[in-house]
Design a protein that fits this description.
The structure is a single chain. The protein contains three helices and eight strands; from the N terminus they run βαβββαβαβββ. The strands form two sheets. Strands 1-4-3-2 form a four-stranded mixed sheet. It is an alpha/beta fold. The radius of gyration is 15 Å and the shape is globular. It comes from Streptomyces longisporus.
Length: about 120
């Protein structure tokens, strides 16, 4: 059987804040709290684990880790409406809604840890 991708975990110093941010962006509920929480969306689970918890499980594992070296992508129904709602909440918008040549309309934002989030819809 080929592996089935089920989600990813973001390692953070502030599990409750990062989980709350993604719950608001994705219109989802947070399950759990510090040191582990998750937000479930159709197709995958986005988990949050504390830096201290990770270090206690695997000492030295966070020495070379950094935030912002990837982009999380989520398909949404209406990029423009979501952009307006998030902008009104003070979310840092990196790139306003733009239609890309490859057929996606997307808005880019930054989460509290510096990771880039791409919310997109097919154009």
């Amino acid at each position: 059987m080929q592996p089935h991708f089920t989600g990813t975990a973001l390692i953070t110093d502030d599990v409750p804040a990062l989980a709350a941010f993604y719950a608001a962006v994705l219109d989802a509920d947070v399950e759990g709290s510090d040191p582990f929480a998750r937000v479930m969306v159709p197709g995958a689970v986005l988990s949050f684990f504390s830096t201290q918890g990770m270090e206690s499980m695997v000492p030295g594992s966070m020495a070379a880790a950094a935030s912002g070296g990837f982009t999380l992508e989520f398909q949404v129904a209406d990029v423009d409406a979501r952009h307006e709602r998030l902008r009104a909440r003070g979310v840092e918008i990196l790139k306003p809604p733009t239609t890309q040549p490859w057929g996606r309309r997307s808005v880019w934002l930054r989460d509290p840890d510096g990771n880039i989030v791409n919310l997109y819809q097919d154009a």
